[in-house]
Specification:
94 residues; mainly alpha; flat
Length: 94
């Protein structure tokens, strides 16, 4: 609605949702009989998970152990819900 406020940073979460979703579908397909190279799709959600864990370690410095342990799940929840909400709102407004 307001393109002047758009920033590439805002497109990261929806991109992650699409990439992780497609990677998961490809990975499952590769496991259940489609060409085996499709199992490489697992690299997309796995790479995102590894990135979130690394970001949690960096951003969690100085936090109590319990908060540090939860931080990757919090980051992933925030990103995936933001991305899914963005995609759903785009589909609804079409």
């Amino acid at each position: 609605r307001y393109p002047e406020t758009a920033n590439l940073r805002y497109l990261a979460p929806p991109t992650v949702v699409v990439a992780a979703g497609l990677g998961t579908v490809a990975g499952v397909a590769g496991l259940v009989g489609a060409p085996g190279w499709l199992t490489l799709g697992w690299l997309l959600p796995g790479g995102y998970a590894a990135g979130v864990v690394m970001a949690g370690l960096v951003e969690g410095r100085g936090l109590p152990a319990k908060a540090k342990a939860w931080l990757p799940a919090v980051i992933a929840t925030m990103h995936l819900n933001w991305g899914a909400g963005f995609l759903a709102s785009r589909a609804k407004n079409r």
